[in-house]
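User: I'm putting together a teaching handout on how multi-component assemblies are represented. Below are the sequence lines for each component of a complex, exactly as they appear in our records. Could you produce the 3D structure of the whole assembly as structure tokens, so the students can see both representations side by side? Please keep the chain order the same as the input.
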Amino acid sequence: METKRLTGKDLITVGIYTAIYVAVVFVIGATNAIPIMYPISMVIIPLVAGIPMMLYYTKIEKFGMLTITGIIVGLFFYLSGYTWLCVAFLVPSGLIADIILKVGGYKKFKVIVPSYMVYALGMLGGPAPLWFAGESYWDGIRESMGEQYAEQLAGYMPSWMLWVGIGLVLIGAFLGALLGKKMLNKHFKKAGIA
Amino acid sequence: MNKEAPRKRRFHLDPRIKVLILVLIATVEMFSLNIWVMTAIGLIPVFLYLTDHRVSGAIKYSIVFGLSVLAHIFRADIQLNMVLNMVIVLLGGFVLKLFPAFATGEYILKSTSVSEMMSAFSAIGLNRKMLIPLSVMFRFFPTIRREHAAIHDAAMMRGVSIGRKRFWKNPGQAFEYRIIPLMITVANIGNDLSAAALSRGLDNPARHTTYTDVKIGITDVVTLICIIAVVTAVFVFTTLM
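Assistant: Of course. Below is the structure of the complete assembly, with chains in the same order as your input.
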């Protein structure tokens, strides 16, 4: 069936890889209980998620799949206790990643890398309220997590950290794409699923 | 186990109401209100567990949540050494803030069949482009966990586990041997799932019928109103007093 519309099979693919992506991000993101892990996870998450995402990219042939992934991941993290900024970040990043693929062509590694890098930036929606939601959010952290945690977190996440964070995510995503590509060639091609 | 068939249960909430409760919990938690409101929110999953006849789940959750509430109340009085104190307060804060939403999410996953979810949300006009990925995702979380456990067992048998020296000699490889098999099984299961769903007419453009009859009943309305009323009452009472 050669249609431009997303078929049931495409939508199931979206569901499967979104589930794996969420699982990976969720497990690694839980380490943010320790303040120092905040900046570190910005590299680790896109790096590890690169493996499932590269496999996912080999299945994408139509416009819209990454956008749907973005919407679902955003909603999931909103409902599991992060803020609505997750949705506000992940939807546009998924959309732009989709557009990059559409313009550059599907299943080309040179296009996949920038697309994945943009997509990965959406995960900054997790820590985003630290910079954008203002003092009241910090009061909330102080109230629920204690002074010590809040102080340490403020130490690791000053406002310029947003720009460093973008850099870290981009580096992590770039390395993640390479790692994913390596794994594809090493394992998945042999197993006949990529 | 015939999960698909409509069941008569004494207490059964509509999936839409369950998700609405989850949204409510996530939204209230975002504001980090005072400890009493947090406790009231934290009691919602206990109630939900009990209505689902999962007493042991309710007890386990209550103990963890109760301890974190205590840790929060007495955090100024706890005088242990710095690190231990910090860990306790931190874990307490984490549990307090995130556990109610997690527990409710887990309750929804366990107590709702996929077809029930599908028919409930297509009834309110959710687009199939969102609906199919979402329900596949719901279907997949337990699968991922089961497959991961199986891979973990196999790795343990061969002596690949975090506790072993060999693991730390080559953590990258150990990690690779965990995640790659998982990805491969999940991708294969996914292919099977698509084949099964397509052969049952997933791509049929006509309106799909369903055995599962979902309605928002009196129980749903009363439960929702009770939850909102209690949380609001606690909020008003503790902020005005």
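A couple of points students might notice: Chain B has one domain: 15-200+215-240. Confidence is low (pLDDT under 50) at residues 1-6 of chain B.
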